[in-house]
Amino acid sequence: MRDIGGPQVISLADAVYAYASVVHRGRRQVQIPVPGKAGAAFRAGVNLLSPDGDVVGGSFSEHLVWRLET
Question: Taking CA 27 as the corner, what is the angle to CA 26 and CA 29, rounded to the nearest 5 degrees?
């Protein structure tokens, strides 16, 4: 199985902000750190695309625009 990902790395907070702005929901965001081993792994970037992975698709913002148009 190959490792795939998009062309940009954004934080979850930025993704939520982008989604909220596209669907016109300007609610307040509160950032809460994820505790434990899972949180530590995300902070270390374990979930990011590996160097030998394949970049596919467009940016998250482009995906949001596409979803609104369909």
Answer: 120
Does the pTM surpass 0.85? The reply is no
Give the model confidence (pLDDT) of 35-46 as tens digits: 999 999 988 988
Domain that holds residue 55: 4-69
Report in angstroms the alpha-carbon separations of 48 from 3, 12, 34: 10, 12, 17
The per-residue pLDDT for 40 is 94
Roughly how many angstroms between the first and final C-alpha of the chain, as a whole number? 29
The low-confidence residues of the chain, meaning pLDDT below 50, are none
| Number of domains into which the chain is organized | 1
- Angstrom CA distances, 59 to 1, 8, 49, 67, 69, stand at 22, 6, 14, 12, 16
